[in-house]
Each structure stands twice: as C-alpha cells, then as structure tokens.
Amino acid sequence: MNIGLFVPCYIDQLYPDVAIATLELLEQLGARVEFPTAQTCCGQPMANSGCADVAAPMAYRFVDIFEPYDYVVCPSGSCTAMVVKHYEHFFSGAGLERYRRVQEKTFELSQFLHQVIRPERFEHPFPHRVGLHQSCHGLRELRLGQSSETMTNCHDLMGDLLAKVPELEVVPLSRKDECCGFGGTFAVAESDVSAAMGRARIADHAQAGADVMVAGDMSCLMHVQGLIKRDGTPLEVMHFAQILAGRSLQVNSLEKVNG
After folding, report:
1. Alpha-carbon span 9 to 146, nearest angstrom
2. Are residue 126 and residue 161 in the same domain, yes or no?
C-alpha cells in the first residue's frame, strides 16, 4: 500500500506537526507513505473567490502528482472535498478519466482509517475531556458525520476513532454540527459575523467542560484559536491525528512551532 500524503497549505506553513503526526500515525498502522514535494495548493481559495481559471492548473497538477499512488490521504475535510467534489468541471476527455481514477482513491484521513485501515484500538492514552468540532465540508460534502439538516444516517468517523483512545472522554455539545464561522474568505469579508460564530462554538465547548477542542480541519481550529487566545479562554486546540499519533495536550501555535 503506497500512500501519497497531501498536506494543505495552512498545515504546511503554520501547523507542520499535524502533517508529521499524520505521517507517523499512518506508518504506525503499517502504511508506506510518501510526501510528494512538488505538491501545491488545492486551489480552493481561488475557486471560492470566483477565480476558477487560476484554480484549474492546480487541479491538473494534483492529478499529475498523485496519479501513481495507490491512495491519496489528506488531514483536511475541506481540501479533500475540493479535490473529490469540485475538480470534475476542470477536466474533459482523457483528462477526465485520469481525474476520476485519482478521485476514487483520495480520502480524508478519518475516511481512510475507517474504510481502509480499520484499526481496532490506539495505544497512546489521552486523559482529557474532548469536544469534537465537525467542519462543514467534512459533514456536508464528505458525510464524515451526521448533520442536523439531513436525514442521511452517517457514522461519526472522527468520534468512532477517538473512542478507541484510552482515557479519552468526549463531552456532549449542545450544537455539535454548527459552523465555526471561518469559511475561508468569509472570515475576511464578514469578520464580525465570523468572530461571533467562532465565539459561539468556543462557548459551547467551554460550557461542556472540554479541555481541548478537536477537529479534522486545522483551518477551523486556526480560526477559533485566534479567538481563544484573544479572549483568554482556557481551551486548547488539536487535530485528531495528533491525538491518535500519541501527542500530549499542547498548544498549536506558530510561536510553539518556531520556538
């Protein structure tokens, strides 16, 4: 099993330990993983801003780079959704057939673990109370969990995996599928609304008694982390890959990475 690891830009630049934890986790589970250094952005920021012509070359490059691998795995529901749900209109003819082959073998990390690896348990304990934040792309495009506006019965993939971690306790939230307010360029164009939505999510986790907010998208956690630090809320953030790989409770910050 030869895996091509696709790492989103913001993880590469701001939270590299999430990429390293993903690599270590997959290797702990017996997979052979490569990080193609020629990879670039998936093109989602450009596509979301209406610049599809700028995003198209990134889609072509993605197919060129990842086509040789048995699987493509990404620790982000948002970027995975861009690849598997929004690339198709960039391709035609033989290129479309190549894309569809890559599309079929591209997985978000929890999807890959749940559907392909199927681990029975994880060795490293995590003795903390955890609140699970479900990203919108993960829920509403990849169906990584159950959202309140759909009748489709979906397994909570991240929750199922974390339930196999010794000593970890998941706390109940009142609005477990609500948006954090990031939304990429939405956080810039509608900053006040975005911040209010983020603070509502933080308050939900805090009132539930969570020690750490855990998610599958560092873009969401990057947004709420800024608000947590600004407001002095006693809450940490971690990607679920870090917990499964055996990381202790930590502050995911650029200062920590550079320090």
Report:
1. 27
2. yes
Same domain, 88 and 134: no
Q: Which domain holds residue 22?
A: 2-116
How many Å apart are CA 92 and CA 99, to the nearest integer?
Answer: 9
Angle between helices 77-86 and 93-104 (to 10 degrees): 150
Picking from 6, 65, 59, the residue whose alpha carbon sits closest to that of residue 33 is 6
Nearest to 246 by CA among 110, 127, 75: 127
Do residue 131 and residue 67 come from a single domain? no
Burial 107-125 (b: 16+ CB within 10 A, else e): bbbbbbbbebeeeeebeee
pTM score, whole prediction = 0.91
| Structural domain count of the chain | 2
Are residue 99 and residue 151 in the same domain, yes or no? no
Q: How far apart are CA 65 and CA 38, in angstroms?
A: 7
Whether residues 38 and 57 share a domain: the answer is yes
**Which residues of the chain are under the pLDDT cut of 50?**
251, 253-259
The counts of H helices and E strands in the chain are 14, 8
Summarize pLDDT for 126-144 with one digit per residue, the tens: 999 999 999 888 877 888 8
